[in-house]
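Hi all, long-time lurker, first post. I run a small reading group and we've been trying to get comfortable going from sequence to structure in the token notation. Rather than ask abstract questions, I figured I'd post a concrete chain and ask someone more experienced to write out its structure so we can walk through it together at our next meeting. Sequence below, copied exactly:
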Amino acid sequence: MKKIPFILLLLFSTMLYSQNLQIALLKYNGGGDWYANPTSLPNLVKFCNKNLGTDISEDIATVEVGSEEIFNYPFVHITGHGNIILNREEVENLRKYLIAGGFLEISDNYGLDKYIRREMKKVFPGSDFVELPFNHPIYHQKYDFPDGLPKIHEHDGKDAQGFGIFYKGKLVVFYDYECDLGDGWEDPEVHHDTQEKHLEALKMGANIIQYAFTR
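-- Answer (accepted) --
Happy to help. Here is the structure in token form:
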């Protein structure tokens, strides 16, 4: 069994304003486009550094779900439109990462939902995604979202929803559904978003970053 390096994981909550902090995009198997939205995370980091006073590297890492390198990144992001398959080793690695203090943000780029729900059930068999109430602290960090997630893209025309997975009472996974924050973080001309929608998405993303590092 691969030896997992747990050093520094207990320091995740103190790293938000430290130097040399880096976040990562998760690369997965199954055929889905894990690489979608290439400008989203760099834009989010720039926004956080400017408006939250963080010092996060603008160099976004790419890390495979099953790699021990995931433990170098206190915040990881998954997106895509299609299938995702986690093998047994990847399931175990991701579970250990989240239990140890890591945070996973999932953005459904449209078409990911049924696959990510299936795979996350492998990671936490005894837990389900639960919709977060509008008074949850993730919506009330630097920026206030009294009605929950902003609606960035239409998809199926449903209300945007924010779901979470908790471990021992602690939110370890946040999932934006029918919202598409990842698209909203991209350069506005990519999806022809208004500046208002782009800013809404960035503000909510900043809330997620702030919450993840201070919970």
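A couple of things your group might point at:
The radius of gyration is 16 Å.
Strands lie at 24-27, 61-64, 75-80, 103-108, 130-131, 161-167, 170-177.
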